[in-house]
Amino acid sequence: MFPKATLERLKLYHRLLSEEEKEYISSEEIGERLGILPEQVRKDLSYL
To answer: Quick check: 27 and 45 in contact, CB under 8 A?
Structure first.
């Protein structure tokens, strides 16, 4: 089970990635675009 905060951020990541036409994107870029630390992005994605 995902922590609720992680689930909410995963929704944000999904929305951002759905809008992008890039093949690759870094956790740094995701974090910068969403105002989230890249370390948190990587930790959240590790649940997948």
So the answer is: yes
